[in-house]
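User: Please fill in residues for this 220-position structure.
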């Protein structure tokens, strides 16, 4: 009787121990897998989070694009105030274009998990001695923007951020067109050489000139 009673108790004890051990092992596996999953998820998230140096220089570019839009808006207002309606229309459109460039950068930084710093802009009166001076200023500003974009691309390569590098290629191509346009306009003004009739025709034709880069922006 004693030996028979002992055996079931012994078996029950080891069965209970085995089940407890099995439960603990299952819990261990669940915790381990959860930790591994969390680690993998964190690594993947880190791969897509915007690099801080890249984020900083993109915010500088956002500020420059906003400044460009503001600058061209002031130029358009001056042109309109002195009777160059066609030039004003062209520059108003150019101002809108630069704002679109800024917004595209803002959305990209947000999509990459970065933090956008919306810049405050300084106001001030702008006046020019003529259209030559207007478009010389435009060209100089576009060259400044080109240099800034090249610096963004350089930082992207340094930080091995090839996603942002690829994104910025649209801006690189855009700046080639912007500088070529400004130089072409300056060449035409040089041929006119201050002739009033020529300036009248130039202003009229510029009103019909289309800034195509907004329409040609790739869909996100």
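Assistant: Residues filled in for all 220 positions:
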């Amino acid at each position: 009787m004693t030996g028979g009673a002992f055996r079931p108790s012994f078996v029950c004890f080891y069965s209970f121990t085995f089940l407890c051990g099995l439960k603990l092992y299952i819990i261990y596996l669940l915790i381990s897998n959860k930790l591994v999953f969390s680690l993998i998820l964190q690594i993947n998230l880190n791969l897509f989070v915007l690099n801080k140096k890249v984020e900083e220089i993109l915010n500088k570019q956002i500020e420059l694009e906003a400044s460009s839009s503001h600058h061209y808006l002031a130029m358009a207002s001056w042109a309109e105030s002195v009777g160059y309606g066609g030039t004003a229309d062209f520059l108003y459109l150019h101002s809108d274009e630069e704002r679109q460039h800024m917004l595209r950068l803002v959305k990209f930084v947000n999509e990459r998990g970065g933090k956008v710093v919306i810049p405050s802009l300084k106001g001030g009166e702008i006046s020019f001695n003529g259209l030559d001076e207007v478009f010389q200023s435009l060209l100089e500003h576009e060259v400044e923007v080109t240099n800034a974009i090249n610096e963004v691309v350089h930082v992207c390569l340094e930080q091995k951020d090839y996603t942002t590098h690829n994104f910025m290629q649209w801006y690189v191509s855009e700046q080639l067109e912007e500088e070529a346009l400004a130089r072409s306009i300056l060449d035409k003004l040089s041929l006119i050489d201050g002739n009033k009739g020529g300036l009248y025709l130039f202003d009229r034709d510029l009103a019909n000139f289309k800034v195509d880069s907004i329409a040609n922006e790739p869909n996100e």
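For context: The two ends are 82 Å apart (CA to CA).
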